[in-house]
Amino acid sequence: MTRYRSQLPQLSGDLFITDGGIETTLIFLDGLELPSFAAFVLLDSDQGFKALDRYFRRYADLARKYRTGLILESPTWRASSDWATKLDYSDDALAEFNRKAIELLVRIRNDYETPETKVVVSDCVGLRGDGYKASARMSVEAAQDYHRRQIEVFRDSDADMLTAITMN
To answer: Which CATH architecture is the domain 15-164 placed in?
Structure first.
């Protein structure tokens, strides 16, 4: 069940933190391999799932320590159909990864949330191609069509909000 979808607590003016540079951290600090910079692939193994869990709990520990709110951003920046095809995952597997990502974050919220530390679960929708090459633009209609399935999975999840990042 969503907790904050109709009233996001970060809009109250209270201080919130979020994670930073998930793929960079997992690759360069944790020594993990992320094909095509796709963190969602870690949800495909117990070891990867545990690595994501540790990553997010570091931020939950900080939020609790400093009594700030926390926005947990799902590791699904590349969990869309073109990237799944490149990584040899089916549409059904991709939908399952998106569901698992939110389930992980909800579990962490349940473990960490306090009245001082509100935890918002956010779905991350990412780019279709190279976010740093604006030549690969989509029309509004094409973007809606491309991201629809991922957003529908999130709509039916316990996520509170959706974030689109590094889009061109």
So the answer is: Alpha-Beta Barrel (3.20)
